Amino acid sequence: ALYGRVERPECIACGLCQMLAPDLFDYDQAGIAYYKPDRNTGTKALDDQATIHFRLAYKRCPTHAIKRSDHPFAADPYTPT
Ligand code: F3S
């Protein structure tokens, strides 16, 4: 399985991920991205369709702030409020 999330301190609010995968990424009030399906905890596995969109955003993020893993992520201190 594939899990994703945004390492928010590395996001420069470029907006690309939300454009490429609007079902997966959104912004907080400061314009910093978070991973929408599980509020950026990186604990909900991507299904096949979402994986295609995720990969597009993952590859294009200019600062590599989007992270992926084969396992659920540990708790994220940067989960948006
Ligand atoms: Fe931020 Fe990268 Fe998205 S810089 S807005 S996480 S494409």
Summarize the topology:
Layout: E1 3-6, H1 16-20, E2 25-27, E3 33-35, H2 48-60, E4 66-69
FE3-S4 cluster is lined by residues 6, 11-17, 33, 61-63, 65-66.
Molecular structure report:
- With 81 residues, the protein is α+β, with helices and mostly antiparallel strands.
- 22% of the residues lie in helices and 17% in strands.
- It is built from two helices and four strands; from the N terminus they run βαββαβ.
- The protein has helices at 16-20, 48-60, and strands at residues 3-6, 25-27, 33-35, 66-69.
- The strands form two sheets. Strands 1-4 form a two-stranded antiparallel sheet. The chain has a two-stranded antiparallel sheet with strand order 2-3.
- Strand 2 and strand 3 form a beta hairpin.
- The protein is globular and about 30 Å long.
- The mean pLDDT is 93.
- FE3-S4 cluster is lined by residues 6, 11-17, 33, 61-63, 65-66.
Main sheet properties: 2 strands, antiparallel
What shape does the CA trace take? globular
- Rg calc: 11 Å
Strand-residue fraction?
A: 15-25%
Q: Helical region count?
A: 2
**Low-confidence stretches at least 5 residues in length (pLDDT < 50)?**
none
What value does the average pLDDT take? 93
Helicity level: 10-25%
Q: Which small compounds were modeled alongside the protein?
A: FE3-S4 cluster
Distance, first to last CA: 27 Å
